[in-house]
Amino acid sequence: MPNIVIIGAGVSGLTSAYLLSKDRSNHIAVVAKHMPGDLDIDYASPWAGANFMPMSAKPGSRWERATWPYLKRLATHVPEAGIHLQRCRLYRRRKDEEKLERDSTMLSNVFAADPWYRELFDDYRNLERSELPEGIASGCEFGSVCINPVLYLPWLVGQCRANGVTFHRKTVAHVSELRHLSVDGIKADIIVNATGLSARKLGGVLDDTMYPIRGQTVVVRNVAPYMAVESGTNDGDDQANYLMTRAVGGGTILGGTLQIGNWESQPDLSIANQIMQRAVNLVPALTDSKGIEHLDVVRHGVGLRPGREAGVRLEKEQIDGVWVVHNYGHAGWGYQGSYGCAEEVANLVNSIIPVAKL
């Protein structure tokens, strides 16, 4: 029976623990500084939208492809998970067309004119000219999902607990601590590093290619008729325009920002006003065309997405004599790649187990 310790209780760590715990021969503990229910700028998962909107290029799409069936099944068959089906509309602005064609980024992948992900959705369609807001050159629509993190993260904890996973609140300074520190009376044979942005400071890892992508949002009580995402804004390249209504009364989240390298934890109210104005301009039905003053604000939020220069790190290595499986650096697609990445974590752990038992 291998002893597996997972560092981190965000969506990546919890999903990894959930899938690994389905094999009851594994003894699994989750050790984390932050747990579901916490609201800390470094703990990105509670601040996410969260939804499924593929961001990868086709050659690197395996994690998102693998995740979609899980999220769709939860939305349709497991209401207590806090996920619901929601139409998603993507709008390509005329002024962004040249940039989208020129650049090879996550944004250009999302707004590709003929995206690979159309094959994932039975109801994918291009929008008619009459359905496009002013200034929008083209767009598409498909049935997606929106996740309420307030419900979904505790649901994952519950599934893990039902499978025997234990949870421990602790700040880990160095990976080797878990090699020598007894957790539940056992010592780690394998460690899964799902620390997100904290991988920058985790001893034994110290990944200085990690950087924050500051996301500022506004949650309102108004209900959006559909999820909407625009290809750009007039307020700067580090701004974004999206909105989605979370499941089970979670409110509608309006976003946002994509501020690379910005660690500021407090909301900027001028940016918040821009976010709200962009949202009502894009989807006037949000306030029955009555304007920004008719948004019923629940709260303002700021979270730091865990960016990494080379993208997600999903691999195994030995650190101070213990095997470590890394699963971090997901930037803004942690939820929508969570199950695909967790499956790969499980495969890596299984490749180590015969060695770890020696």
Automatic annotation (TrEMBL):
One of its GO terms (biological process) is D-amino acid catabolic process. Its cofactor is FAD. One of its GO terms (cellular component) is cytoplasm. Residues 4-348 form the FAD dependent oxidoreductase domain. Coiled coil: none annotated. PANTHER family: D-AMINO ACID OXIDASE, D-AMINO ACID OXIDASE (AFU_ORTHOLOGUE AFUA_5G11290). Keywords: FAD, Flavoprotein, Oxidoreductase. GO terms for molecular function: D-amino-acid oxidase activity; FAD binding. D-dopa binds at residues 305, 332. InterPro entries: D-amino_acid_oxidase_CS, DAO, FAD-dep_OxRdtase. This is FAD dependent oxidoreductase domain-containing protein. It comes from Didymella heteroderae. Belongs to the DAMOX/DASOX family. FAD binds at residues 172, 195.
